[in-house]
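Hey,
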Amino acid sequence: MGVKKPVFSFKPPHGNKYKVYYGKAQFSYKRNGKKQTIPVCGVCDAPDSTNPKIIIDPNLTKRVELATIVEEICHAFLWNLKEKEVRPFAKTVAKFLSEQGWEKKP
């Protein structure tokens, strides 16, 4: 998976403690009976997973990285929400924070 040491950890009200990593984020699914794996900006394990983790691609632009972090943490807390519900929320929060001057430390 290409992940290193965790950079953050948290525990949502329901589920196990998450660890957040930077690394190669991939999503796997089955299509026509064959496993497909695609690169993604970030991925979040189900909250009932043993040792769930969030992986964020380290090569994203600052704005995309921020939106991805918000999106994946939102998934951890609100697992039942669909991608099409979480993504606009994450983009809005990231845009607001960026416009207010929030930036990642160098």
